[in-house]
Design brief:
The chain is an alpha/beta fold. It is 34% helix and 16% strand.
């Protein structure tokens, strides 16, 4: 089925809604779409519909007028409460009188919401798994996905603009935070650290994306010997905290501060933004560092680099596949304890860090 397209509208949309219902990193990677819309329609109000737990990724973005959210905790309070909240959200969105809705999501819920807004222009993607009359009925236009397998996730998202007559292949991502976020982060740093520190984020919610703790300790020891302070960060999960503790144990003489589990995402963004260097694995903070234009060294294992390599990154991307054989990303059991990044030698990371810092 060929995607439906219409000529570019002659009228500028006054109110725009962008829908994306995914994880934290996915939300950061829709900001190039928001940036492109802002450049094209500088006077438009641009709203976003997302999952409540991802709000922090976009809450401080100055290009966004208002954020609406679906709280996945609603269902824990029973079906009646869930339906009441969903219906209230739909009515609120319809009352906004959007002239343009961009549905970047692939869920039926997002398609039905798109239709319910009543917007004259409703653009979604022509996903092969959604080639159904109802999906088409929910959208006025469908953007092609034929080239998505060879495109970065950012470029995939930007391709939804093609039916509007301004296809974009390149636009910057943006991670925003407030002055208060930076002051909070700064308050955690010992005196003298704020001017010359490196952020190391060794953890991911999926441990198969992580590197061996002893090797990360070696990197920190080398950079400490070079005169840099290292700030270790992680999420609040107990497994991540234990991993950070093990890394710290391997750095008895390291110039080291641990803020593991202590920062919000926006506070972490502020910390990364003021760092000399970010070192981390394939995770949300890595994408934040790239969006903030902080020099980075990113460690990748069996991830699809075409899709997930840091967008607009300044620095070095080290892929474990250059040092050995990796499994197909689609075949990995995400619960495995296997550390695929262990193919990456310590010396390669230390050399990359020194190169970026030079």
């Amino acid at each position: 089925m060929t995607p439906e397209t219409h000529p570019s509208d002659s009228l500028t949309p006054a109110r725009i809604l962008v829908i994306k219902l995914r994880h934290h990193g996915d939300m950061l990677l829709i900001t190039p779409v928001i940036n492109a819309l802002r450049q094209r329609y500088p006077d438009a109000s641009i709203d976003v519909l997302l999952y409540e737990e991802t709000r922090d990724m976009l809450a401080a973005n100055p290009d966004i007028h208002r954020i609406f959210a679906i709280d996945r905790k609603w269902k824990k309070q029973g079906k009646r409460h869930l339906l009441a909240m969903e219906w209230a959200l739909l009515r609120t969105l319809r009352a906004q009188n959007y002239s343009l809705v961009l549905n970047l999501a692939d869920q039926w819920r997002s398609a039905i919401t798109t239709r319910f807004t009543g917007a004259a222009r409703r653009i979604g993607f022509d996903f092969p798994k959604r080639r159904h009359p109802l999906w088409r009925f929910c959208h006025s236009d469908l953007a092609s996905t034929q080239a998505h397998n060879s495109m970065h996730t950012v470029q995939q998202n930007l391709s939804i603009l093609a039916p509007l007559g301004f296809p974009a292949q390149d636009a910057p991502a943006k991670m925003s935070y407030s002055a208060e976020d930076w002051q909070t982060s700064l308050s955690h740093l010992p005196e003298g650290v704020a001017d010359n520190y490196i952020v190391v984020q060794p953890t991911s919610r999926w441990f198969f994306k992580c590197w061996q703790e002893a090797r990360m300790s070696e990197v920190i020891n080398a950079l400490s010997a070079d005169g840099y302070s290292v700030v270790l960060t992680s999420g609040p999960d107990a497994r991540e905290i234990r991993m950070v503790d093990e890394i710290i144990a391997g750095c008895p003489d390291g110039r080291l501060v641990s803020l593991a589990g202590k920062l919000t995402l926006r506070q972490l963004a502020a910390l990364i933004d003021h760092a000399r260097l970010f070192i981390g694995v394939d995770s949300v903070p890595m994408h934040m560092a790239a969006a903030l234009n902080t020099p980075l060294v990113a460690l990748f294992g069996p991830s699809k680099l075409t899709f997930w390599r840091p967008w607009q990154a300044r620095g070095e991307v080290i892929w474990a596949g250059d040092y050995g054989t990796l499994p197909d990303p689609d075949a990995i059991d995400t619960r495995t304890e296997e550390r695929y990044l262990d193919l990456i030698p310590t010396d390669a990371v230390i050399a990359a860090a020194r190169k970026v810092l030079a």
